[in-house]
Amino acid sequence: MARLPPRRTLVVVGDHSYLTLAHEEAKILELAWPAAAQVLIIVILTGLITGLTPSLRSYMAIIMPLALGIAAIAAGTATLVRMHPDSTQVLRLLLSIEAMTAPIWHVTCLALGLVAATSMFFLEAGLNSLWIRMQRRFSNNMHTLSFFGAPMPGRVESMRQVAQVASQPILFAALSVFSAAAEEFFYRGVLLLATMEFEDKVVYPLLLQAIWYGLNHVAFGVPAVIGKTILGISLGAVALAGGLLPALVGHVFYQYLVYRQFTTRPRGGRFRKKQIGEEQP
Predict the structure, then answer these.
(1) What is the distance of C-alpha 14 from the center of its chain?
(2) Pairing of strands 145-147, 9-13
(3) I need a labelling partner for 124 at 20 to 30 A (CA). Which of 85, 118, 192, 276 fits?
(4) Residue 266, pLDDT score
């Protein structure tokens, strides 16, 4: 992984000089994590407004990824500008330019991204099945959400909307690539790679960026939050090894698997067709 300058480095940009302290823990807490909280708040507020507005409710599967993507790009860019005035160094960090000098390592990282995405997809599928069995056993209303008494879209309705978007491949692909790129830039790029300096502090930002990432999927239920948190850890590890590109490839492939589960029919009836709500987003 690319390394940034020492903890205190005088960076000269044009006629201005900056003393960058970006990698001190205080700086991380001051800039990166509040930005993650801001993105989560925007996502929650967008979900509430959209879910409580009848004319917008049926478009939540389109509005939410757009809102998350725009918020992530805006917050990530603002944070990077404040943390790293040297844009060239930031670019080298996020893309791990040094890793690209070894083609076999770069290919290996791409493969790891695909393996991570596939493994996490099926892991979340197992979590979904377990959660649904628990719902059927203990409660009949666990799909229902409300906000001060007003009904909100639950998991079943959210998955039905995703299925409708998946029926339009171009729209689904555009939303998937945009949201995946924005999320990788913000969570694996800004919250992880851009806040790294010492190897013995890898676990702290790796876990936190994954938790923030998972919380953004609360509308899809507990399995999605857990599954996306683990996915965030996996893609974070891939990003640490080879930069954002392998993580982005893995994320996009994960979205492709999501698309396939909504559009592929079982062959010969050997597998029962999933009910809406059993899929993962």
Answers:
(1) 35
(2) unpaired
(3) 192
(4) 55
Q: Which amino acid is at 91?
A: L
Domain span holding position 214: 9-263
pTM for the full predicted model: 0.79
Q: Does residue 106 form part of some domain? A: yes
Q: Assess contact for 36 and 28: CB atoms under 8 A.
A: no
Compute, in degrees rounded to 10, the torsion defined by CA atoms 239, 243, 244, 250.
-60
Cα gap 163→69, rounded to integer Å: 20
Q: How far apart are alpha carbons 28 and 172 in whole angstroms?
A: 34
How many structural domains compose the chain? Answer: 1
Q: Are 51 and 158 in contact (CB under 8 A)?
A: no
pLDDT in tens, 208-250: 999 999 998 887 778 889 999 999 999 999 998 888 999 999 9
Q: How far is CA 265 from the centre of its chain?
A: 28
Indicate whether 259 belongs to any domain.
Answer: yes
Question: Residue 1 has what pLDDT?
Answer: 45
Cβ contacts of 234 within 8 Å, gap of 6 or more? 116, 117, 119, 120, 250
Q: Has residue 273 been placed in a domain?
A: no
At 141-174, the pLDDT tens digits run 544 554 444 455 666 777 888 889 999 999 999 9
Residue 226 lies in a domain: yes
